[in-house]
């Protein structure tokens, strides 16, 4: 992480499933091996510093849409307890009844208790997983995602929403559309992230992105269950580490 990394960490999404979104900082993704990702560099082992930074973002929440999305370049389990408690407190105070959190497959067993904790307060959790593609051979041998099942149904037993990574070498129009369809069949919502160049070995493929833009973008952009991020800052948060 560069000293100067100072991303925007609070934003409001006004279209489709309107919600506030905060990008918080935790102790860091435990997996860290995905060959396309450098977001996991947004981390610190200093819990007090993380809480101070997170508190600043969380205090901006107004509750205007009664929905909040929390992202933290990893999984909810990487956030410190004070931050989780503050999320809970602010949601109760601002009448937020639905919170979206992200989580890696390796922490799936922690999800039921986490749902229960919030549901006791009348808050529904929606858990989002980055699957990137349902082609498990491609996903695990090329992307190194760390999901040891090839069953979308098994993933959907734990998770409500899925992120897909598209626009990379080896993908085709058919493979990308198949992934979106599988996502819509098994999950409540699908978020398509178009690959953006970073310092990692997997690079965007302009020809694949052009196929997506020409055929799939127009087909899915008006689907209320599909978010499409042509740039990874399209939700209004983030930046380059
Ligand atoms: S994509 Fe997610 S799981 Fe993979 S290394 Fe990055 S933060 Fe970790």
Main attributes of the structure:
241 residues; alpha/beta; TIM Barrel; 7 helices; 32% helix; binds iron/sulfur cluster
Distance between the termini: 6 Å
Mean of residue pLDDT values: 94
| Ligand names | iron/sulfur cluster
- Inertia-based shape: globular
Tally of individual domains? 1
CATH architecture term: Alpha-Beta Barrel
Q: Supply the helix-strand structural class.
A: alpha/beta
CATH C-level: Alpha Beta
Structural features, described:
The protein is 32% helix and 18% strand. It is of the alpha/beta class and 241 residues long. The protein has one domain (10-229): Aldolase class I (TIM Barrel). An eight-stranded mixed sheet has the order 1-2-3-4-5-6-7-8. Helix 1 runs parallel beside helix 2. It is globular, with a radius of gyration of 17 Å. The mean pLDDT is 94. Bound molecules: iron/sulfur cluster.
Topology:
Layout: E1 10-13, E2 19-23, H1 47-58, E3 67-71, H2 81-93, E4 98-102, H3 111-119, E5 124-132, H4 136-143, H5 152-156, E6 161-166, H6 173-186, E7 189-194, H7 206-220, E8 226-229
Parallel strand pairs: 2-3, 3-4, 4-5, 5-6, 6-7, 7-8
Antiparallel strand pairs: 1-2
The chain binds iron/sulfur cluster.
